[in-house]
Design goal:
By secondary structure, this protein is an alpha+beta fold. The protein has helices spanning about 5-10, 15-20, 145-150, 165-175, 180-190, 300-310, 330-345; strands spanning about 25-30, 40-45, 50-55, 60-65, 80, 85, 95, 100, 125, 130, 155-160, 200-210, 210-220, 225-230, 230-235, 235-240, 245-255, 260-270, 285. The structure holds FE2/S2 (inorganic) cluster and fe (ii) ion (FE2). Fe (ii) ion (FE2) binds next to α5 and α6.
């Protein structure tokens, strides 16, 4: 891979090829319960853009560029009133679509406010998470993944700390089943957390499906078997299922080229398949990855994975790496990214973009529950 190709796959900002691809998908950017009547605004950064998300007094959500178009003060300090957010500096008022409704010190007949449009993006609350869409309109739908759509269980949210690394380093792990043996199993064994570690797959298969890639691993020995791995959902999600029932979506949300935050949405099925009532805002947990000295504590999967992601550097230079046969899933994902970047350049939808809300009621993955 050349440096230029690496840039194309990893850059997330506006008008970059990778950024344009990522702008065809919804991304979770905050937990709805964080926005309360007392603290209704939050600064967020997504795909290299500084934004303010807010909950207005009637319960709707807005997401706008942080800097006012007048002279650039932060709308984070603004007032939520009169149908929008009002700049704290000179009072320009913007609605949720970015139109400027008032400029208190301009002449009544001025056309200035009609000539400007603040960047503003749609927000949707789904299962307690606020999703944003920064791409061209009309918006696609948020795919009804089973974790989101199923009614026979309850949900939970995990918020992981922002890591100083590019999103693709994180997603590539999802196409890399061999990392389990050392990064997870041996690490846990050395820490006394498990009795053995040498269990390793003897072969790896990857199949491209409508939503991304399904992995399969075969294990040898007397009790050899073949196992369906966790699907990687294009472009930046992992669907992780545990044998006993829980299913999690791990969203690797690109904040900018060198920062990424993971949000988990977990689903715990009811034991008997019954439909359960649950709160509109599932319980959320903030995860610690490091010890008090600032080192990864390595005692959990997320801490171990995050060590591997962050220590590759802010943006891994893939022009100097050495891929082997065991990296074929990683190579496949990069190929998918390139193909879909080209689709977006041609004006087509990349894979996984759904526009017809009636097409899928629920999206499951057959083999791995
Ligand atoms: S800087 Fe926002 S109104 Fe002047
Ligand atoms: Fe892992």
């Amino acid at each position: 891979m050349t440096r230029e190709e690496n840039d194309e796959l990893t850059q997330v900002g506006p008008r970059t090829p990778g950024g344009e691809l990522l702008r065809r998908y919804w991304h979770p950017i905050a937990v709805a319960a964080e926005l309360t009547p007392e603290r209704p605004k939050k600064r967020v950064r997504l795909l290299g853009e500084d934004l303010v998300i807010y909950r207005d007094p009637d319960g709707g959500y807005g997401l706008v560029a942080e800097q006012c178009l007048h002279r650039g003060a932060s709308l984070y300090y603004g007032f939520l009133e009169d149908g929008g957010i009002r700049c704290p500096y000179h009072g320009w008022l913007y609605d949720k679509t970015g139109r400027c409704l008032e400029q208190p010190f301009e002449p009544a007949q001025s056309i200035l406010r009609h000539t400007i449009l603040l960047r503003a993006y749609p927000v949707e609350k789904v299962r307690g998470l606020l999703f944003a869409y920064l791409g061209p309109l009309p918006t696609p739908i948020i795919p009804p993944w089973d974790v989101i759509a199923r009614g026979d269980g309850t949900r939970r949210i995990e918020i992981h700390p922002v890591l100083t690394c590019n999103w693709l380093q994180m997603q590539e792990t999802n196409l890399d089943p061999t990392h389990n043996t050392f990064l997870h199993n041996k690490t846990a064994y050395v820490l006394g957390l498990r009795p053995d570690w040498t269990f390793r797959p003897i072969s790896l298969e990857f199949e491209v499906i409508e939503w991304g890639v399904i992995k399969r691993r075969a294990f040898g020995g007397d009790n050899g078997y073949r196992e369906e791995g966790h699907p990687a959902i294009f472009p930046n999600v992992l669907r992780h299922s545990s044998g006993w029932g829980p299913i999690d979506l791990h969203f690797r949300v690109p904040i900018d080229d060198t920062h990424t935050q993971t949000f988990w949405l977990g689903f715990d099925p009811s034991p008997d398949g019954s439909l359960l009532e649950e709160s509109e805002d599932p319980p959320s947990t903030y995860i610690e990855l490091k010890d008090e000295e600032g080192n990864f504590h390595m005692r959990s999967f997320p801490s171990q994975d995050s060590m591997a992601w962050e220590t590759q550097g802010p943006v891994r230079d893939r022009s100097v790496e050495h891929l082997g046969a065991a990296d074929k899933g990683v190579a496949l994902w990069r190929q998918l990214l390139k193909e879909n970047i080209e689709k977006v350049k041609r004006g087509e939808d990349p894979i996984g973009v759904i526009r017809d809300p009636d097409k899928y009621r629920i999206i499951s993955f057959s083999a791995s529950k």
